[in-house]
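Fold it.
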Amino acid sequence: MKKLGFILLATAFFATSCKKDNDNKGGIFKGPEVQVHDGKAWTWVQLDKSGNPERLAITVNDAALNSLPVGGDDHSGHDHSGENNWILPFHPKAGATAFDHIGLDWNPAGHEPEPVYGKPHFDFHFYMISSAAVAAIPPYEVDSLKFKNWPAPEYLPANYINPGGGVPQMGAHWIDFTSPELNGQPFTQTFIYGSFDGKVNFYEPMITLEFIKTANNFERSIPQPAKVQKSSYYPTKMRIEKHDGLNEIILEGFVYRTQA
């Protein structure tokens, strides 16, 4: 009987341990790798033990950064030729956040306005809509009314303004007028919101190549709107981390917000 009792106790302990393991929904979940010139990039999401998002990120390796075309005289705007633009899906586990995928855009000579944003830099578009919906956004001249259909002010941070116009396959851009680069300081990094047809459709860390290569464990807050249009988890901080030949642009400090 003692032996039988021991076996039953051990079985119960093993079953309980397995259940605890299965209940752990946390971990890091990587998206597919994408070729970026001579290197690679990929996305990942980190979830806590309950399956709630802690970090959402894109990783670009040194081989990619070191093979990017740099310079030129074209500061006219965003290039959609494909050579310097990539779509990076998230792992399905990232569905716990408000974001659908990343549009990675490299600007070899920056873009307008050239005195401010004329440095080689990345636009990291964390889109809240599908890649098909992004591709369907027309040039501003084709349907300016949808670009001018701005979200209500409470869905954008208080200090954000729209400089006018809009970009095809992106939307209207909203900039923080208190950002250092708009107040006499050199452009290193900034945080932009995007919208189209009344909806906020992306968050965008915009960061120079020089800053990515030299900054490590850089952290900044993400300006927050008073309200959100979709109930989900939203980030409150952005971080740059470097290790083992990898460069990571991370959104973190996620909080759950209810649509209002």
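The helical segments are 2-23, 62-65, 114-117, 131-135, 144-148, 209-214.
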